[in-house]
User: What shape does this take?
Amino acid sequence: MISKKSYIFIVIIFFFLSTCIPSIVSAEEQILPGEPTQVDIIVNDPPATVEQTPPIVEPALVEETTPIVEPALVEETTPIVEPALVEETTPAADTIKPTLLVKSITLQSDRLFVNGTVADNQPTTQPLTINVIYPDGHKDPLVPDSGGKWSFQTSVTAKLNHYKIEAIDASNNITEIFVQRPYIQSITMNVFKYRQKVYESPEPYKEEDVTASVNILEKDVITRASLNQMIIIELSDTLSNAIDNSNNPFIIYDKNQKEVPFDVNFIPHSNKITLTNKVPLNPGETYYLRFNPSLISLDYNEGMRKLVDNLNNPFFSITKQFTTVSNAAKNFAINGYTVQEMTNLQQLPHGAYNNNVNNCAICHNTHKGANSSLESKDIAQGYCIACHDGTTGPKMVNFDSSIKSKHETQKITEHDTKSGSCTACHNPHLTWSEDNPNLLNDHYVYEHNAEDNWEGNLVGKIDSNVQMCEACHGRFTYSYKSLAEKSGGYNVLHYRQESTAIGNITETAEVKNGVTNKVLHVDDYNLCFTCHNSEKQSKDGTKDILTYYTNSNSQHKLTALDGSKLNGSLPCSECHDTHASKNILLLKDKLGHENQQVFSLTKIDDWTDQKKREYCLTCHNGKTSLFGVTGKAIFDETGQSLISTSDSVKAGHAKDGTQVCSECHSQSKSFTEAVHSPITTP
Assistant: This one.
């Protein structure tokens, strides 16, 4: 019998065998033939790692570091980078000259004040020397302010075409300019005033012509020029070089471009030239006198004589229009009294009515007048043009079949039934005078006594162009107008042009219907602004231009450098023809005084943004000048903008830009505003 201890031992052995042997068999079944055991994997992994590291990673790092990276850095540093830096630095020597401009020459008391600007491409920290060089060669330094503005003053008798300004930058680049070019001071012509009978014994009477010598630079467009002329031209400087028929800087031609032959007389070392026509001029004809025409336009032969002073400084060019006396005015005495003489005077319808009231019947019909003024119908075409088509009176410029626009006011309400376009500007009842050779409308301005009142209101200053004298004085007006004349109150409504414009803007207190208003007047062009004002615009749609001309911020104000008087807004006549034009909108087809540009616009559909840009560029090209001032160019020879304040501004001022100028240069984005009163924008 098995003991109890033996039994326990046998059970333990049996339990051990039944547990361990199946586990070993199961483990052996999971290890397939040919597969490594866990021990094999642990043992084989390290050799694999050792084999990959030496040939791939470490040698590759050595090869990239030694032969590729380091030599490449050496090659790029030595021959490419460093020499390139040296090449860019070497040619940077400055060769650009400073820019010098004379901006204004003004007379104050007994001194001439010259103002200008200087600019340079170098930093403002670099020294910039400016000197005024006097005729004797000595120099005085000029010190510009931080904005490059400089000025100096000299005697009123100084000949500024002998003075120079020089600017020298830090690289010794030198710019030297004359302070002013020489110019024509006066052009004196003989004009016909009237023919009269002079009663002397033993003859019953004789007829004589009353004439006058007139400086046509002080008149807009002179009329009644004598047919036989001796034109005296006074220069701003004396000359030593010869001027004769073979070296002649003048040309006189008619409206058909036909030249007039004349003799030239000049005494060396003087400043006067005399022109005498070889054959009489045609009566009632428009002529043009041009001086240094090769500077005006390429239409003239560049080989034509160009007058320069003794320092080879060219005189400013000039063009003056004049009209000769008509046969009607020239042939009949104004104080004739026979029936035949009075009949003859009907060919001279303007003025002198004290001698011949029969002239009234030419325009007025006592019993069958078409309106309250007893005028015949369509006086402008039926009467004015009956003479001013070139038959007996001077023909208006451009008034032919090629015109595209007329200065037509017939449709304006107050001219509907009157004589229309002509009397909107001209007074046919006036008598010719030197001060008003074109019979422009006139007015009276009279300052009443401080205590004068009308219907309880103080009268003050009255302008007959605002309120008619007849509104208060009735049939006694004539005597009161005489008082105004004696006090200097008679004024012609001006349409001043190239050589006569001044640029004044005045403010007056004017009374109308008892109400006093402050009114701005642009005296040079007040004939134009009798219609082109805000009141007329609201009434009948006439364009208001006066508002633009009284804008103090306008950039179309300039100071003349060519010896003329302008110090203000550009004359209307610089852009517009007067009576008619080959272009629409009365735009001139040639613009500028020197280096003129041609412009064509024959239909309104072509008045696009691009065409408007083209119009502005006729002056803003760096070549064309007005009054001696060259229009500022907006792009260079390559077409790149010269204005670089921002990318959008650069794009707008580039040659291939498409933006219309009024987008930036007017407050209302109106081209009408931009062209009459452009502004600068930040």
User: Anything to note?
Assistant: The chain has 14 helices and 31 strands. Residues 23-77, 410-419 have pLDDT under 50 and may be disordered. The longest helix spans residues 38-89.
